[in-house]
């Protein structure tokens, strides 16, 4: 049992509690804001790191949630201060939010370091915000609790349920095939996003919020509560109360996270049929916690954990249904014997104690282990001469015939090349072709954009083709689906073998043996690689130039080398 802190041991005491010139300045400036010693005297200062913005509809409610968190902090005897941080709206930020995940991680860490903060409540949910906030909090290692923004309500169109992302791609293909009208398309635009909150399919947002809970960084059940449910503000307020206690208990991320908790997170990811993006983020978060996470570990766990959540895009239902079915607690109860239930959580209790009385209410949404949605886990890690450091596939979301496939390559040098070609009616392509997209990785994209679900060529869409084998060094949206091989490492922009694949080559994928192979002789591959010339860097200056110089490959979690590096940063001097 760790000794409880006393007020003079609070980090903020250095700013506010001592009698010197600087502390005078800090206190007088708090008084300038209308506070007095009753507000801060001997109390934990709690940062509410808020990713609200007008241009992030997934976080539209976080402005009021911050007030609810503040209420909880005040109830528990803390002093709340709200610190705005980059919002990272997935749909608006270009070229891709992944370019800025590390930016927000760095911002979170430095916001906490540079201010008189004792503990943090992290408000996020839209795709990259969850890993970014958590990465920053891990590196800073102050007590921190995560408030997931929660999924939006189900989409709706003419009696049908619509899912974020997944149904956009689906109906876009139907429109390209001439099967739906402009009026239909515009009605779908009105009906697909009905409330604030994150995407409500098991996309990257829902996956990462669930992973935060599996890691022990949220209150039990928090990640499944729909954003518009009245339980959501109650959860936010409870987080405000809890963080104050966490500060007195000095319950930091380093006391919560371990190799076992990351195994739990991977296990939950597999059982959910979660987004492939989670792999990159989990590797990055683990490395921040000093835990080397190998892609092999994902594959090992994938082979022993079935998908039991029947959620789109791999299944039929949406996050609102998942909540009614019992949510993540019910799912974790189903796979309890595959989890380490002794792992600690932000509540001070173990993961297992947080599952007490959890049960499944809708077995068609959360299946029993005896009747899984997909027998093996969500994600397969493939390796071979085309991806020496690995690549990722989501077999549950692919047409089964592509789980073992050999076909001729149609290669695109970059996104613009692909976009020009794919709509051509005279494109030389068949449903058995393997579409390859290059220069879409961490440095080449730049930022590893979600281009990995390459569009099916229009001429094939018109004749009914809806899935093809597609290979790239890009990521794909967690709401996407199809036989897409992603995250090929090393990427083509740095001279990985993907760079020298040519139209007419043959590629073979065999998911059961976890193999991907470019059918080109070793000599020919070596000859092509020797002749390859590196493209010019994407950025001459600014954040982009820093990104390009320091970004790691997908198998390393795409963190900056100087942020992933171990070692303590000293506390700021207060002069
Ligand atoms: Fe924000 Fe999907 S766009 S979670």
Please characterize this protein's 3D structure.
The protein has 21 helices and 14 strands. The protein has about 575 residues and is an alpha/beta fold. The chain folds into 3 domains: about 30-155 and about 195-355, Rossmann fold (3-Layer(aba) Sandwich), CATH 3.40.50; about 160-190, no CATH class; about 380-530, IlvD/EDD C-terminal domain-like (Glucose Oxidase, domain 1), CATH 3.50.30.80. It has an 8-stranded mixed beta sheet. It has a 4-stranded parallel beta sheet with strand order 2-1-3-4, with helices on both faces. A two-stranded antiparallel sheet has the order 5-6. Helix 4 (about 60-75) links the parallel strand 1 (about 45-50) and strand 2 (about 80-85). Helix 12 (about 260-270) crosses helix 14 (about 295-305). The mean pLDDT is about 95. FE2/S2 (inorganic) cluster binds next to loops.
> Please, how many domains?
3
The share of residues in helices is 25-40%
* Top CATH class of the largest domain: Alpha Beta
Low-confidence segments: none
- Which compounds are bound in this model? FE2/S2 (inorganic) cluster
Task: Determine the mean pLDDT.
Answer: 96
* CATH topology type of the largest domain: Rossmann fold
Total DSSP helices: 21
Shape: globular
Radius of gyration: 24 Å
